[in-house]
Amino acid sequence: MTYSELVEFCGDERKAYFLSSKIDYREMSEADLTDAIANLMVKVAERTQHRRQLRLEYIGGRRRDTLRG
Questions:
Q1: How far apart are CA 7 and CA 10, in angstroms?
Q2: One digit per residue, pLDDT tens: the chain, 69 residues?
Q3: d(C-alpha 12, C-alpha 17), whole Å
Q4: How far apart are the C-alpha atoms of 63 and 60, rounded to whole Å?
Q5: 8-27 burial by CB neighbour count: b if 16+ within 10 A, else e?
Q6: Is this model's pTM higher than 0.85 or not?
Q7: CA 56 to CA 49: how far, in whole Å?
Q8: Rounded-to-integer distance, Cα 6 and Cα 39, Å
Q9: Beta bridge partners of 55
């Protein structure tokens, strides 16, 4: 995937630039890129919600939020 294809995929050059700094998109298909973005989003959400102990899981294409108490 080229950078221009990444911009088209994201719909915004700002988002594409951010992703290009976090994910090696050059050797990915669109499905691989979608999975990598979902994994990145889960990691960020877990890190920001750490104090509440929110755990996000990405299972079979679905996101499952589990609040542990």
A1: 5
A2: 899 999 999 898 999 999 899 888 898 998 899 888 888 887 877 776 665 666 666 666 665 555 454
A3: 9
A4: 8
A5: ebbeeeeebeebbeebebee
A6: no
A7: 10
A8: 17
A9: 66
